[in-house]
């Protein structure tokens, strides 16, 4: 009898979560422009093309700037990265890939927090972006959902001068450590993206930091080799789809290990 009730509860609860717009699996998206998404943006205009991998799904939600859940759709960061035109980022392709892998995964809540052009020091403990990240994450988990991972793609702005590039390791480690403390999630998985090696003078130093950093449950995927737009800075829509899949693969492999 008890088993039957539990089974029934198990069947109803995902439906309830969907109806109540309280996603059970929460992912934080943070960093700078390539996380916020510039795929399909040219001369400050987004082409509006949404590949099938980034399509809407009744199981994927987004925490908007007004701190309420709504059905997620591209561009995910449009009301967060306000001062720039946003396009396709990795978030929707990530979420769709995770759902395709496991139909019983439940609902996904994406929490966009990325802002273009930001350096690691602008994410330091106590800054506006840091507080916003912590606050949005805390709002997101209020409905009982679990923070499954933080996806982080940043570092272009720290690749311009040698000084920023060489202090990146220290600054990044401190940021991750503080964030886990303030969220009271000491081992929450963080999946970071190693920058493609592009036109920035010191991106090799930053890439090395990203690929080599050792922290518990810190993973990375490499964006090197992904096609860039004409600006030689931003991933194309198709590259963002590939990156989203890579992030999902990293998460799924980590989860099943
Ligand atoms: C947008 O620009 C204004 C004015 O420069 C600035 O105060 C604000 O922080 C910017 N917002 C974002 C999200 O970048
Ligand atoms: C889901 O991901 C796991 C871990 O990467 C993998 O072993 C498994 O084959 C995937 N399943 C499907 C249906 O894609
Ligand atoms: C974050 O939340 C704290 C406490 O509720 C509040 O004082 C602060 O203004 C918030 N900061 C941002 C950036 O939303």
Automatic annotation (TrEMBL):
Domain Sialate O-acetylesterase: 24-253
Signal peptide span: 1-19
Keywords: Hydrolase, Signal
InterPro entries given in the database record: Carb_Esterase_6 (IPR052940), SASA (IPR005181), SGNH_hydro_sf (IPR036514)
SUPFAM superfamilies for this protein: SGNH hydrolase
A UniProt-annotated Pfam family: SASA
GO molecular function: hydrolase activity
Name this polypeptide is given: OLC1v1016867C1
């Amino acid at each position: 009898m008890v088993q039957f009730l539990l089974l029934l509860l198990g069947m109803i609860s995902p439906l309830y979560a969907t109806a109540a717009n309280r996603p059970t699996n929460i992912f934080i998206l943070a960093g700078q422009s390539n996380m916020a998404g510039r795929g399909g943006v040219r001369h400050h205009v987004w082409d509006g093309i949404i590949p099938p991998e980034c399509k809407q799904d009744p199981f994927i939600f987004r925490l908007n700037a007004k701190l309420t859940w709504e059905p997620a759709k591209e561009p995910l960061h449009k009301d967060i990265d306000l001062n720039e035109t946003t396009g396709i980022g990795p978030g929707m392709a990530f979420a769709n890939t995770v759902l395709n892998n496991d139909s019983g995964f439940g609902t996904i809540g994406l929490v966009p927090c990325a802002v273009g052009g930001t350096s690691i020091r602008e994410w330091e403990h106590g800054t506006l972006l840091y507080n916003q990240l912590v606050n949005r994450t805390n709002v997101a988990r209020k409905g009982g959902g679990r923070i499954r991972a933080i996806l982080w793609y940043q570092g272009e702005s720290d690749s311009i001068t040698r000084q920023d590039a060489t202090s990146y390791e220290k600054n990044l480690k401190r940021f991750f450590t503080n964030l886990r403390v303030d969220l009271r999630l000491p081992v929450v998985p963080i999946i970071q993206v190693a920058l493609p090696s592009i036109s920035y003078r010191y991106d090799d130093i930053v890439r090395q930091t990203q690929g080599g950093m050792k922290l518990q449950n810190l993973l990375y995927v490499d964006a090197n080799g992904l096609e860039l737009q004409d600006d030689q800075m931003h991933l194309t829509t198709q590259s963002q789809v590939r990156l989203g899949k890579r992030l999902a693969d990293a998460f799924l492999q980590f989860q099943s290990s």
